[in-house]
Amino acid sequence: MLDLTAFVPKARFQPGVALSPDATKVAYSSNVSSHYGLWVAPVRGGEARCLVEFPDQAVRQIAWAPDGRSLVFMADRDGDEQYQLYRIPADGGTPEKLSAADNRQYRLAADPYDPNGRYLIYAANDRDETVQDLIICDLHDGREHRHIPVGKASYQAGRVSPDGRWLVVEGFNSNIDSDCYLVDLAKPDADPVKVTDGSAHFDPVGWTADSRAFYLLTTVWGEFIAGARYSLDDQSLRPAVTADWDIETVREAAETLLWIVNENGRSVLNVRRGDNAPTQPPLPPGVINAIEVSSNGAIAALHLETATRPAEIAVLDLASGDLTYLTDSRPSALATIEPIEPQTVTFTARDGRDVHGLMYRPHGEGPFPVVMWIHGGPEAQERFTYERSGLYQYLLDRGIAIYAPNAAGSTGYGVTFRTLIYRDWGGVDLRDFEDAAAYVASLSWIDSKHLAVAGASYGGFGALSCLTRLPDLWTAGISLYGPSNLVTLAAACPPTWRAFVNIVLGDPVADAQLLTERSPITYVDQLTAPLLVIQGARDPRVPQDEADQLVDKLRGRDVDVRYIVYEDEGHGFTNRDNEIAAYRQVGEFLISRLKPET
């Protein structure tokens, strides 16, 4: 039988791409050697070049300077999410640090430069660790134009119009409540002007080619995210593209308009050139995690992933529809086995809602043991991606099925479905997980006596809730950096998240009774199934104490618990060796509990 390493991608990529101004090169972040470094590959194919690789930092977002002679990027240390800004010449050299405070968070704008390269635009909490200010740095004289949000909003620095006159930014309150603000870059000290109004989601994603309007994503008209267009000429907001699913992004370049629709977990790219009818390039069914379009509308650079092929950096010819992969991260196992595509399945929850999910069935007749894997977020979605560095396909090859429900709180199924979990963690979601377990157990090809539950981040909380509050259902469980105590989690959240956490989770003081009632730690004495806990010591979102307090109580009762802490990791994995080691432990643990005879 194949080892997990045979399923691990040769490289993983941060979810972003940066197309050079002349559209001849693509920059991206890859961990092909160890940590995530900055790589540049020619669009027409050829050997990629590593410009930056730090021994203990991970490169995140990347952008080109307008003249193509340098790049700026964000990097954090061992996953601590204290992003610093750097600049490096496009032909290589020593990175120049641009950010001033080491223990603060700097975030590049989606378009961090104006077209002339005078201004560098980013957000930072260097003035007040609880607030993200908007900063427009004049690179000519070094002057910093700082804008402080009004109220509890947090600025997410956005996109610059093609003519360089306007910057549109998002004022973020929560995932369903945000506004768009305009900044006149001819008067960079003038206060941002709010141009949207209403308790809805408004997220700017791009400009029209003539700079007279910008595109944004919004829920103002209904349950699903629509693509809208805000006109600077008459201050009107009108639909641009809509669907019966969420619109993920909209881009315009020259006479080409692109938009992506999330159709039940798959990204469907639509391209309209001029006045022609829109077309859908024949991309493999999967997820487009990032897209950038050349200024002439001829090509697009993609971060593309499917359930049976790991994430890759690719280039799409928008006229012909031809797709060219610039990377090949396929592991050796995919050359010898037939990877398994998930099937979309649906069950009806006890309150009448349809709950969608993805079911992976191993080759053969069965019956098969199954892992119910709960996604993170909770505002996220299980999608058609190559999950957990090949762990899904590895377990399938060992005859273990995987079911991944999109329970209450998941994105992709409307605002009402998404917000069911607000201030109700461990309530409606746990009922969905119980119904999901019953659905899985009803399938004739499932071994209902061998059912595990697992998840990472919020998914770890979901798994721990299942194990402590529905203890009779499970053979084993896994929590990767999952919270166990909602009171301490809310109290220790990153400073810039405080207002958001109060909306989505609750206040650690005012809501202490409810948060205690919903915390897995409250029911830890009911947990009996073998448990694997994996945690990063530098995690800023789910501190190590969340795992420590749980494990201490379990060890005091002699429960079979295995606890692994990675001292140089945060929320997830930035070190390739750590990631492989962790998922090997996950795989071995599940196989030993679900298929002990093998």
UniProtKB/TrEMBL annotation:
Coiled coil: none annotated. Residues 393-595 form the Peptidase S9 prolyl oligopeptidase catalytic domain. Keywords: Hydrolase, Protease, Serine protease. InterPro entries: 6-blade_b-propeller_TolB-like, AB_hydrolase_fold, Peptidase_S9_cat, WD40. It holds the Pfam family PD40. PANTHER family: DIPEPTIDYL PEPTIDASE FAMILY MEMBER 6, SERINE PEPTIDASE S9 FAMILY MEMBER. This is S9 family peptidase. It comes from Actinoallomurus oryzae.
